[in-house]
Amino acid sequence: MTRPTGARARASADGLRRTFPARPAGDTAATTWWGRAWVTALTARSRDAGRLERGSDLAARGSVDAVTVTPGLVLAYVHGSRPRPYRARLRVRPLTDDDWARLLDHIADHPAHLAALLDRELPPALAEGPVPLLPGAGDLIPDCTCPDPVRPCKHAAALCHRTARLLDQDPFVLLLLRGRGEDDLIDTLTRLSVTRAAPAPGGDEVTDDEAADPYRPPPLPGVRARDVLAAGSRPPVPPPPPVPDGPAAPPSYPSGHGGPDPLALDQLATQAAARAHALLATGRDPLTGLGHWADAVRIAAARPGSGLTSAARDLYARLARAAGRDVTDLHRAVAAWQLGGEAGLVALEEPWDPPAGPFDRARPALLAAGHPRPRPERNRLTHPAGDRQLRLGRDGLWYGYISDPGREDWWPTGTPGLDPVAVFGALPGGGA
């Protein structure tokens, strides 16, 4: 059983948080009966069909950023007419423990319901059974940070349409909104089915404790504390677990009025997890010695399409302001980082005096290749026209730069390399 590729999401370790990536423009309206029912639950409380239609258009244009789903809450940034996106939320009541007990019994009594869920289908007999899963009119509560006093606004409506498409692809998203993650549900239903199929109490397969608590999780591997502390020889320490293939998604974060932005916390936690995984796998912290400015450049360089969207422009402005630099400096530094990482940033901002060797051999090599005699200055060789430049990095690589003649406005370009002639020749106009 595999999840559909259109619903790929990062999930937290406890399964109570899933983050779905943004979708490009062209997303269609809900196609399943339960996806359309989700939209109907929001439209039933609206008195302005125009706002709902504009919300549908926003969703179709790809204006909804990554969607985070946790029990009782759907959250995303939605781009509207202003540069800064708005934070839209949809709330729905999670089921109580008694509701879940009745729902799980109902599914266990009808194995076809679980089979349908695993096939990413939601049978009406399950959704409308003893514990209704889909929200009714008034059960779906929209909220948004935009100044529109009417709810739902077009941003919340856009998020509703985007969520309906997620429900189309994976009904377990609806069950997560009602309070239980997919893995937890499947494990619980499996144990419940085994318990019901077991012999009557007194048999060998299931103990009395297990029969009394069908939701009891299996025991965890390890060494009991009383065995470790007992007198005599100690059992061997269990071997360390293998290093995971990659960092897990961070847990869910609560949101509230005046509290920290849960999406910003998610970004920080995701970066911390990646850093911890690299330290665990290699024994080396990849950010050791990275200063405040270099870290801001690293964060900005990790955003594809930087500078092209309003969200990226806002990120660049905030990072530059926090580092005490201007946005142009940040764009230039990002270009250097994307070419050579931290070493590329050093080549951009730190002139130095290289020892005898590669730097001295570069000038005659350029002359032999038919290029004019460059002007040397510290670790830099500049074309006489003042429009092209090579910089020797502390990593031994040559970095190419271009500028308008006479402006000294150097921007990194090209691919760094060990051969100064090849790097220079690859620059725009480098053959001249």
UniProtKB/TrEMBL annotation:
Q: Where is this region: Disordered?
A: 1-24, 197-264
Q: Which InterPro entries does this chain map to?
A: Znf_SWIM
Give the keywords, sorted.
Metal-binding, Zinc, Zinc-finger
Query: From which domain of life does this come?
Result: Bacteria
In what residue span(s) does the SWIM-type domain sit?
A: 129-164
Q: Which PANTHER family match?
A: SLR1429 PROTEIN
Instruction: Please report the name of this protein according to its UniProt entry.
Output: SWIM-type domain-containing protein
Protein's organism: Streptomyces albidoflavus
